[in-house]
Amino acid sequence: MAANPPFRRVLIANRGEIAVRVARGLRELGIESVAVHSDVDARCAHVLACDHAVALGGNSATESYLDIQKVLDAARRTGAEAIHPGYGFLSENSTFARAVRDAGLVFVGPNPEAMDRLGGKKAAREEAIAAGVPVIPGTEQDEGDDALIAVAKKIGMPVMVKASAGGGGRGMRRVEKEADLADAIAAGRREAKASFGDDRMILERAVFPARHIEIQMIGDRHGRVVSLHERECSVQRRHQKVLEEAPSAVVDEDLRRRMGEAAVRLAERVGYDNAGTCEFLLDEQGRFYFLEVNTRLQVEHPVTELVTGLDLVHLQVHVAAGGKLDDLLRGRDLTPRGHAIEARICAESPEQGYLPAAGLLRLVREASGPGIRVDSGVYTGWQVPTHYDSMLAKLVVWAPDRATACERLSQALRDTVYLGIPTNVDFLRRVVDDEAFRTCKLSTDMLSHRPDLAQGPQTLPDDEVLAAAVLCQALGGVRAGAAATGTAAAAGSPTAVWQRLPGFRLFEVTR
Amino acid sequence: MKVTREFVRDGETVAVQAEAIDGGRWRVRVGERVLEFVAVPMVDGGVRLTPAGEHADGHHAVGSRGFVAYGAAAGKEIGGREFQVRLRGRTHTLALPSGRRGGAAAGGDGIVRAPMTGTVLDVRCKVGDEVAADQTLAVVTAMKMEHKLVAGVAGVVREVQAQKGATVEQGDALVTVEAKAKA
After folding, report:
1. What is the pLDDT along chain A (511 residues), one digit of tens a residue?
2. Cβ of B66 under 8 Å from any chain A Cβ?
């Protein structure tokens, strides 16, 4: 493949782990990568991973990663021929996709017309109905707060209010009582405005208990769309995915075929031509309802890659350059093989209501071993900024069967170290080790019924822990030159760790 | 070499003193108790610890029952307010005696603090307001999430330090509520 790369240079309009992951895919195809970054991200992992880097200036997403003109200027200045948007930021913004096309560049994503038809929840719902895909009762119209509240009264509580332009749980709320509707809509509008620049909301009946099952699709520019089967993302907290896996333990071949056909029917109807995900709720009776289409590569794409053996970034780039899926997938057996699970590692305290954290990562050690993949956007010495979301890395495992994959993930989490700020690593391990997860009794609201999993054991640190803490202060910590000099004694005084760590960088930026 | 640190456990300050003996052996006093380890620093920043008496005598491979511990200061300030130590697959966050208490958004002391660094989105009270114990007084946003900050106690708002649109640091006082005297 590298012998004849489809592009010479591609700009990645994103940051952190996904930009690192896309850069790796590009390099494997023999394509140069261009990073863009805000001021605080000047030494973010993705800047170090790319061949070129352009400072966008500013720190908030609005003045950096969401600024279409700045991103396009960066592409022009570096001679990039295409732009990969990653997920979040501008990835589902059809205005951006159009601006990229109008600038004579290739957008590594679906065409803007298909995005418009599927991107907004309202538009997508209408298309789904027209394509014969089952939907949840509710409204796709936002005619103001009073109209939304009237619909809620008609279909009955509880209801979900969601950002029309949304994805990733931003601006989404479950509302139990009519009295809380106005507040929930107002808060949803603010979050939606901040995240997507569009504060329109939709409202629908809450289907509970339910599983979240989604179909990964890939389309080409020749009218072909292929289903790459399901992922199950039922383990969620406040509508943010926590653990994702493929295949789903409750999806049999018949259901997989029916859900895949529904997703492909919808995608074909709108001329979809890149990677995308069709999300469904699956109720206890095995009925599935259309939720939304994410018109981009998803956070959890690695689990599909591990069970199908495909590289979705490679496929995205090839189809964006006009490649045919029939050629790209020729001779491939797409039947899911084995089992993959992903855990999202975030800078947050599940023990304190999932409070997000920012600050200096003083010690990072990521797991490795057979069947373990870490897509990371951080390193020892990285200052996690407050301006973006809290995900640090994704820990993904593959094993021949689900039970082995669970055990592998549990052990990999045990071996995972991110110190300096709170993270959800121990919480993830509690969930993975819990009987409900091991026996696959999953639903999207399971964590809200299990505060014990977020809270963790309420035990005091024992004497061994205190002793270990002092020995770590005396001997531990990553230090420049420790490997070269070899011994602990060479590491100097016991307080040296305090003086050394701030400002320490493991890597230098090379351009 | 001797290293002494203090931690707060269950409200009590515990002095921990580690003393190098020889051959990588360390004697650690935790309060009244004495523990012994062979401690070997790892290049990844961890320290391999083998409790004494468990094949740590040089004739055996170090520590079939040993473990690797990782430690780092935590918190925003240089040196941090807390110390995190990870061993046997679990991270323990230890409070330091000098550490300012942060994190708790709504203390029983009536001071509503910023739970994290962020931006004040809304202030929903003014000086003189009578507020209930779980009433939302301010909304702070960080990392694209909104957080409602509620009064820890029922009472009267005495001071509103928070300003809409202002950036606040973790632990900053936002609203001060004077608790209502119990009737």
Report:
1. 445 899 999 999 999 999 999 999 999 999 999 999 999 999 999 999 999 999 999 999 999 999 999 999 999 999 999 999 999 999 999 999 999 999 999 999 999 999 999 987 778 989 999 999 999 988 877 889 999 999 999 888 889 998 888 766 677 888 999 999 999 999 999 888 888 888 899 898 888 789 999 999 999 999 999 999 999 999 999 889 999 999 999 999 999 999 999 999 999 999 999 999 999 999 888 999 999 999 999 999 999 999 999 999 999 999 999 999 999 999 999 999 999 999 999 999 999 899 999 999 999 999 999 999 999 999 999 999 999 999 999 999 999 999 999 999 999 999 999 999 999 999 999 999 999 999 999 999 999 999 999 999 989 999 999 999 999 999 987 654 343 333 333 334 444 344 334 334 444 444 3
2. no
Distance from CA of B77 to the nearest CA of A (A): 9
CA–CA dist B180, A164 (Å, integer): 44
Asked whether the beta carbons of A146 and A164 are under 8 A apart, the reply is: no
Residues of A in contact with B71 (CB under 8 A): 363, 419, 468-469, 472-473, 476-477
- What lies within 8 Å, CB to CB, of A127 at 6+ separation is A117, A118, A266, A269, A270
Q: Which of A355, A426, A488 lies closest to B116 in CB terms?
A: A355
Q: CB–CB of B70 and A419 under 8 A? A: yes
Return the residue of B nearest to A381 by Cα. Answer: B72
| Beta-carbon contacts of residue A214 (< 8 Å; ≥ 6 apart) | A230, A231, A233, A277, A278, A279, A280, A298
- Looking up tokens 């880097």, which residue turns up? A53
pTM for the full model? 0.81
Q: What tokens does A331 get?
A: 């001779």
Residue B47: CA count within 13 A, CB half-sphere: 30
Residues 412-451 of A with CB under 8 A from B: 413-415, 417, 419-423, 425-426, 429
Distances (CA, A) of A50 to A7, A46, A63, A305, A320: 15, 6, 22, 22, 20
In angstroms, the Cα distances linking A378 to A480, B77, B98 are: 18, 20, 30
Chain B closest-CA separation from residue A116 CA (Å): 24
Question: Could you tell me the end-to-end alpha-carbon distance of chain A, in angstroms, rounded to an integer?
Answer: 26
**Contact yes or no for A505/A381 (Cβ under 8 A):** yes
Whole-number Å distance between alpha carbons of A197 and A68: 13
Chain A within 8 Å of B96 (Cβ-Cβ)? Answer: no
Handedness of CA A16, A22, A25, A29 (dihedral sign): negative
Return d(Cα A331, Cα B19) in angstroms, integer: 65
- At residue A37's C-alpha, the angle toward residues A321 and A240, to 5°, is 80
From residue B179, give the alpha-carbon distance in Å to each of A34, A184, A421, B157: 57, 29, 33, 9
